[in-house]
Fold these 4 entries.
Entry 1:
Amino acid sequence: MPPTKKTTAAKTAPKTGSKTGSKSGPKAALALPAPKKSKAAAHKAESADSAAAAETGAAPGQRTVAVSGSQSGLGLAIRRHLEAAGVRVIGIDLPGKGAEVEADLSKPEGRKRAVQGVSEACGGTLQGLVANAGIDAKDSALTFGVNYDGAVDLLKGLQPALARAAKHGGAAAVVTVSHAILISPGVKVRAADALLDGKPGRARLWLGGGNPYPVSKLALARWIRREAPGADWAGAGIVLNGVCPGAIETPMLEKDLKDKVKGPIIRAMPKPLGRNSKPEDLAGIYEFLLSPQARYIVGQLITADGGVEATWRGDDWPRAWDISTARFLINLFGNKKSR
Ligand SMILES: NC(=O)c1ccc[n+]([C@@H]2O[C@H](COP(=O)([O-])OP(=O)(O)OC[C@H]3O[C@@H](n4cnc5c(N)ncnc54)[C@H](O)[C@@H]3O)[C@@H](O)[C@H]2O)c1
């Protein structure tokens, strides 16, 4: 892979130790079927593709995917997995971590910088986005800033680049959520609703002394559910979904295991598969959700926690839809907005 073109916000080469120089084209799983074109149109498109590729550092026909939190843990495993499949990855991470785009996603200016850096590096056309960066901190402003705003602002800011790619075959966005939204007791739902309403101050009030992590991830999950089937995402040809991992052996888990309260709880969690996941166990799920094979999965939260949620929630899920037939019919025929 040729080096990334230098931009104001994008750097040239990541320092991950991962193989970023793959010359192979994308594997079939990530390649999109080529639309039928006349010879002249095909030649014109090819020249434009080559020019764009030369501009942005992608090989002609190579897919480009941006990954946030690309320099550690799960994000690094996703980066390596995609790169091994011939995808060009534009990593986003904190300054000093060696990503192509350095930005602090906890701050509005950092989020702008990330969007600008990725847009420049991909030349305005992006086939995939993995909004993965996250933290588990006691500081609620920081946790809300990285986990919720850091993902949502990246998704909104890069939607035009994804929509542009979608017009030429398809695009997808995958968000790292957490099974914490499914298995944590007493998540402050009102705080999550306040985040969704764009009121982080109110969210902190509703949170009180509660844990900000599951609140930030619940708001993110609900944002995905609200937006994915709408005009800006499915309507623009971009499939948007979330992944809910359980405990993954990463620096984040190492830190949580040292915590006096969280450590014993995490250790006591059921392990139907006999162990916690490693980041590499999950990377293929992201590749699949970014591929055309997953084109009809929209607005879903794929739980990948080795069976913890299934053990605890059991028959609590799937839950029948609590809606009367009358309300269902009103929704179906009376309210065009609901369709
Ligand atoms: N490790 C687990 O057990 C677990 C479980 C469920 C979900 N998750 C989620 O998986 C995702 C990846 O976490 P991980 O376990 O790989 O952790 P990690 O700490 O190894 O990686 C997180 C990455 O996000 C980056 N990041 C943190 N704050 C940032 C900021 N302000 N701006 C830009 N980048 C920032 C870090 O630099 C790092 O590269 C997170 O969203 C996390 O919530 C993790």
Note: DSSP finds 13 helices and seven strands in the chain.
Entry 2:
Amino acid sequence: MKQIAVIVAGIAGLAAARILRQSGFVTTLFEKSRGLGGRMATRRVEDLQFDHGAQYFTAKGPRFSAMVRQWGENGHADEWFDGAFVGSPGIKAPARAMAEGHTIVAGCQVAAIRKEEAGWSIYDPSGLVKTPGNGSFSAVILAVPAPQAAPLAASAGVDLLELAKVRYAPCWALMLAFSERLSLLDDRVKPQDDAIAWIARLQANLTANLTANLAGVARPKPLLSTLRRIGRANISNGPRTWRPANS
Ligand SMILES: Cc1cc2nc3c(=O)[nH]c(=O)nc-3n(C[C@H](O)[C@H](O)[C@H](O)COP(=O)(O)OP(=O)(O)OC[C@H]3O[C@@H](n4cnc5c(N)ncnc54)[C@H](O)[C@@H]3O)c2cc1C
């Protein structure tokens, strides 16, 4: 049976691994974080819980809709509002459900991919990753974001020049907790303000019913108009030193 290495366990890698397994392949996922789900991320602060990456998802195609229905039946997801779904008890729950039964090598930052006699091998910064099947993968799937994919592909002797040029627009996710419920007009606000994409009161989201008095996650809009105001240099300086570009 063919062994395939899937580099990373974000939702894209997990989806690839799932389809490969259905087609009879054996997959091993390599992921640098200890957890799964990548940007489907949850942060816990004392007894508070913030889904600070993806907060909800929609399902448009029939196959994904069927999967979301299954997650709902198994308690991994809930409908939040009008066709928008959240993970239950957090956004990572669907990723965990997708990961069931897969071999996952967590805490492994892939540094290089090399072709050897028996097949493809995966290396981390300290050398060959010791896991069954490593060294004999017949294929490697890269499901990392573009900026990380290009150097990994280059280590395998594949130049993805167009990919290397891709730059992701940065954004900040604010996680704010208040001792009292704020009087927002709505639990989901898309302000007219160009710099803020979205504010959600997480306690209104079924996931976060567990977290009393938690309110407000804002995401500066990662669009060009916002970038003009914030500027890449400013955003990498961090919020303490942020100044609007025109101030
Ligand atoms: C603030 C924010 C809010 C968002 N809100 C929404 C939303 O409301 N709804 C929605 O649908 N989407 C939302 N998104 C987008 C969504 O989260 C992403 O599109 C999606 O999670 C990307 O999945 P992915 O598998 O492609 O990549 P990721 O989730 O980024 O997974 C990539 C994985 O690669 C791993 N990795 C990287 N390099 C290496 C390496 N060298 N070795 C090993 N592992 C490596 C990382 O640890 C990570 O787990 C949001 C994103 C952000 C940042």
Note: The two ends are 61 Å apart (CA to CA).
Entry 3:
Amino acid sequence: MRTYTTSRHGQPNVSQLHYARQGVITEEMKRVAEREQLAPELVRSEVARGRMVIPANVNHVNLDPMAIGIAAKCKINANIGNSAVTSDEDTELEKLTVATKYGADTVMDLSTGGGLDAIRSTLIKHSAVPLGTVPIYQAVQQVDKVTDLTIEGFLEVIEHQAKQGVDYMTLHAGVLLRFMPYISKRKMGIVSRGGALMAEWMMHHHQENMLYTHWDRVCAILKKYDVTVSLGDGLRPGCLADASDEAQFAELGILGELTLKCWEHGVQVMVEGPGHVPMDQIEMNMKKEQEVCHEAPFYVLGPLTTDVAPGYDHITSAIGAAIAGWHGASMLCYVTPAEHLGLPNLEDVRQGVIAYKIAAHAADIARHRKGARDWDDAMSDARWKFDWNKQFALAMDPERAKEKHDATLSHDAFKTAEFCSMCGPKFCSYKNSQDVTAAWAKYVAETGAAGGALPESILAAKDSDVHAVIAAAAANHAPGELAAQAARERQVERKAMLAQKG
Ligand code: SF4
């Protein structure tokens, strides 16, 4: 694979934002333009404006550059990582493989258990997609208690991870001491791990958020490696009752302020968002972020649209993610079926990624992004032609599609069958509809009645059974076709019976 990022080594300013502002179209921007079917100049101008980020640490050697921003296709992130209770380096590498196989555009390593450095360097080495982290997890691991954290220790961890090649980092710099009274009014307090840790430190020391007060120093480190900041939503709502409250929006205001500071430093930045939000508040939330955070890309977790479906939160949240993507979110952070219940396993990762690929693609279609619907149209053609193998190949999860089809009709003969086990040969509406279309075309050809009246026999047919209509049309105009149709049906029914008998 081609190496992009190392060409910036040794330059005094390596940030994509810096180059874009100078009018330079980098190799990374060209690659993004190619992948997005956008003009390279548009990519450059969006990066310069801060509406698009290209997370591409100069030390992430095998990265295939991608972009997050409103002009680009909607992206999805998959969170992986171990906990103190379960998982190891090999399992996390497997999760990376599964996540990227099914289409994760970025991956975040949220490990909080042991071996953080080893897991992170292995993931960076094997990942062609940008890797994100939450440095406070390692900073806290290195001290006895959260309250022992110091800004020097925190900055050391940030620089250490930046040197390793981390492409973007979530930093909870917008959780401020003066927002703490808002938390007591909530049903569920602070549900962000990073947000809760920062709040604990602030309340213990009665001091302001150390990242907020040392933000210039944070930016100076990130700029050296072109690490993109992902401004963490430490006060995101953790339930519908807390959605869109004063704590959430007070923090969002600070994230807007920090966005401007990042841009002053030439640091690329995106903003993280909620959380748990009822459907009727999602559009308002997307618009508010664009307004308050100066159109910096919005990276949203879900949001979950109901709180009552543990085990299915990839669905409750993908509904919200699709709406968020439609109304302006640039990247959707997946939620898996294990959310609120445990650490996701490989199957959870697969289901979470697919649920979010669906949400992001649905958003791309709704936003009329270039070429977004071509995929759907190709699938419709394959369905209409009963090209089952092509349907599997086009499916978002080809293996799952084939598995579902073959569960009832596994024999090779059914890969060209003009029906599936859902309706069976007699009731397959695609086939019956095709016969109606063919009969009508034949009638038009024979009578020259283009756009003309239907034969009396069809108009008189009261029975809604499509077969009656076909029979009427065929009896009048295509007796040969009717016989052929009946023979075909008998043949497929016979094949089905034989195959089922084994
Ligand atoms: S049998 Fe029913 S579900 Fe299957 S292809 Fe035909 S119309 Fe579609």
Note: The chain has a mean pLDDT of 91.
Entry 4:
Amino acid sequence: MKHFEIALIPGDGIGPEVVAEGVKILKAIEKADPNVSFSFREYPWGCEYYLNTGKMMDDNGLELLQDVDAIYLGAVGYPGVPDHISLRELLIKIRRGFDQYVNLRPIRLLNDSFTPLKGKSQKDIDMLVIRENSEGEYAGAGDWLFKGKPEEVVLQTGVFSRKGTERIIRYAYEEARKSNKTLTSISKGNALQYSMVFWDQVFEEVGKEYPDVKTYSYLVDAASLYFVAQPERFEVVVTSNLFGDIVTDIGAAITGGLGLATGANINPDKTYPSMFEPVHGSAPDIAGKGIANPLAAIWSVSQMLDFFGLEEWGRSVLQTLETIVKQKDRLTKDLGGQATTSEVGDYFVELLLK
Ligand SMILES: NC(=O)c1ccc[n+]([C@@H]2O[C@H](COP(=O)([O-])OP(=O)(O)OC[C@H]3O[C@@H](n4cnc5c(N)ncnc54)[C@H](O)[C@@H]3O)[C@@H](O)[C@H]2O)c1
């Protein structure tokens, strides 16, 4: 019997609505498989918690989470709390504190009708973006000098350490080798003459150990164009924190929107727990209406199952996703259907256990 303890941080807005559906899937798997069990610990952290306590999470939050097998997060952020507070004092604190230096974002078209790209189909859009998740442009280094004065100056420093750059690039080469796919690095060496020239250099250096992996290297502006015009160029992609954030939103746009985009924050050494979450935010515009699409959050469950070594279940969840997206009447409004969030979850379980 394999047992996994999962910390739930449903968060704000639609976060709790979509997390509830992901948990529904995990509970269904537990019921169907006598060799697997899950237990859940829920934390009420997020913007409402901040408004009541002045903190996004408890001071000893990381300590409380340290011994779980995974963290399952909905979304944080809500009007009334500045986004840089909600993001930095919870999400980034966990990613950073638990050295979740790999952000895995699959960009895969599950249904031809979801892409706005003319002439592109499922065979053209199937990639895995590996985003550096611990430093780079989001390292939080900088200064704000002479605030409010005419001579005001702000500095936001990108931080690219050899250790941090090498380990993410090596992880990507390993992934490309394992899956027998090409590897594309996205950078910007022509304009960022320190950080990105260094990135390109490390990509080449590490590549010498992987002569079997076919590689490409694009500037981020060209890569953004190719994401839209020729997404079939990409299989495994490795890039920095900021560029990864942006190009994966393009990825979401060409595959059906944010309701279908997932991301895993991985600590590959398993020294700390990893965190699984949909890419979307708390969507205050639709929160509480029961119409949020839970499929991105459910896709995160598939990534979590893979991470636990339950790959068969991970695959089944993904296959069920591919099946459900072909039945428009079973989907939420953002994907052209009429179903509610919990109806999608219920039907998903039915299909999964069929
Ligand atoms: N990981 C996170 O927790 C995270 C990520 C992004 C934004 N945020 C925060 O969320 C708040 C809202 O940000 P935003 O509006 O820029 O982004 P958002 O992702 O919350 O919403 C953008 C648009 O996509 C729609 N959308 C998002 N998820 C959906 C879903 N599952 N089903 C159907 N429609 C969906 C929303 O209705 C909205 O129109 C902000 O406070 C922001 O900081 C948090």
Note: The longest strand covers residues 2-11.
